[in-house]
Design a protein that fits this description.
Number of helices: 10
Cofactor: Zn(2+)
Order of helices and strands: HHEEEHEEEEEEHEEEHEHHEEEHEHEEEH
Family: Belongs to the peptidase M18 family.
InterPro entries: Peptidase_M18, Peptidase_M18_dom2
CATH superfamily of the largest domain: Zn peptidases
Protein name: M18 family aminopeptidase
GO biological process, one term: proteolysis
Distance between the termini: 31 Å
Number of strands: 20
């Protein structure tokens, strides 16, 4: 079962190089399982026991099942939240560079990326492209070159003797990827995108590319590694691992309880967007589920959110970066994340509930508190809790190398997370 779950996670990550592709993958899997797609521009006719999904900006998605008649009002919602975006290199609007006979693209750093691991990797390009057809109609489609088309070569140590002494990386001058020789006149990114559109979507002929949102990504596939397969290595584990676990839990659930999965974009840059956790997407959906204000407040106060986002495992080479009593280990189960300054939204009641849930599901559980002399990251948990007033527990699978081009998790932890999140969706009683 573990190998099957890891392979499914690997397939999910490989098909999701951008938030747009992750949302499409989630949508396709949900529809295949019988969920009905809703359109925010239309009226919704929801039925007891129904299973539905809705997406916004092609990069965020909410899926929910209503449970039995009257269950929503009486039992509350079991919500799981994650995010679809990861730190990466985004292509600028006018990116073409012709330097030393080589064609490069200027990039902007999206989120808090570890830059050094991006050098000397086989990179591809994917994202959303908006274009005009010959009849004047505007349309957007997703593209993915899939094959390695770019690289950011390191400067040889002979020309950069101080590189191993902590030399800074300049994102403006050091990071533009190299794609080709520029000997041929008229190299143009939009023409390249138009050709790729036609190749992937044969109906997209005679189009003018107007704009795009494109990200470079590493083409190395996910892998189970280690002498005995103890580890799982992949790009974008933060936070596609949680998106996948939430999806699998929803698909595995018995359908008796009202459940909701929300996977939003832009967490890595603050979530402040129309489709981010600090935007109105989730609130808009809840208003359509329960139009009456008083009834909706009652529903929210009966509900609980599990904010699932990866946690920092204690690194054997840098153990001093953790509080000595709060160093989560790989393959030791999900981590409850706690911060007195509300960088995480966990409180004693929600932490106790999650501990009880793990014990009931025979899943080990850990805790993380940042060192008192270090700053703390955050998640969608505090944002969603403050916008909705919903009780929240912040948890996540322990990982190494968070925000690197390639991250590392324990091979048993994805299964642990799916098990406890499935138990959460099936839980008859919330706190």
């Amino acid at each position: 079962m573990q190998d099957q779950q890891l392979q499914d996670l690997a397939d999910f990550i490989a098909s999701s190089p951008t938030p747009f592709h992750a949302t499409t993958t989630l949508r396709e899997r949900l529809i295949a399982a019988g969920f009905e797609a809703l359109n925010e521009r239309e009226d919704w006719q929801l039925k007891a026991g129904g299973r539905y999904l809705v997406s916004r900006n092609d990069s965020s998605i909410i899926a929910f099942q209503l449970g039995a008649e009257g269950a929503l009002a009486s039992r509350g919602l079991r919500l799981i939240g994650a995010h679809t975006d990861s730190p990466c290199l985004r292509v600028k609007p006018q990116p073409e560079k012709d330097q030393q006979g080589l064609w490069q693209l200027g990039v902007e750093i999206y989120g808090g990326a570890l830059l050094a691991p991006w050098f000397d990797r086989d990179l591809s390009l994917a994202g959303r492209v908006t274009f005009r057809r010959a009849d004047g109609a505007l349309e957007s489609r997703l593209i993915d070159f899939q094959r390695p088309i770019a690289v950011i070569p390191n400067l040889a140590i002979h020309l950069n003797r101080g590189v191993n002494d902590g030399q800074a990386i300049n994102p403006q001058t050091d990071m533009p990827p190299l794609l080709a020789h520029s000997l041929e006149a008229g190299r143009d990114l939009r023409a390249l995108l138009a050709a790729q559109l036609q190749q992937q979507h044969p109906d997209c002929t005679d189009v003018a590319v107007l704009d795009y949102e494109l990200s470079f990504y590493d083409t190395q596939p996910p892998a189970q590694i280690g002498l005995e397969g103890d580890f799982f290595s992949a790009a974008r584990l933060d936070n596609l691992l949680s998106c996948h676990a939430g999806l699998q839990a929803l698909l595995n659930s018995d359908g008796e309880q009202p459940c909701l999965l929300v996977c939003t974009d832009h967490e890595e840059i603050g979530s402040a967007s129309c489709c981010g956790a600090d935007g109105p997407f989730l609130e808009d959906v809840l208003r359509r589920l329960v139009p009456d204000d008083a009834e909706r407040i009652q529903l929210i106060q009966r509900s609980l959110l599990v904010s699932a986002d990866n946690a920092h495992a204690v690194h054997p080479n840098f153990a001093m970066k953790h509080d000595e009593n709060h160093g989560p280990k790989l393959n030791a189960g999900p981590v409850i994340k706690i911060n007195s300054n509300q960088r995480y939204a966990t409180n004693s009641e929600t932490a106790a509930f999650f501990r009880h849930l793990c014990a009931s599901a025979d899943v080990p559980v850990q805790a993380f508190v940042v060192r008192s002399d270090m700053g703390c990251g955050s998640t969608i948990g505090p944002i969603t809790a403050s916008r909705l007033g919903v009780r929240t527990v912040d948890i996540g699978a322990p990982t190494f190398a968070m925000h690197s081009i390639r991250e590392l998790a324990g091979s048993r932890d994805p299964g642990y997370l799916i098990t406890v999140l499935t138990a959460f969706y099936n839980s008859a009683q919330l706190i």
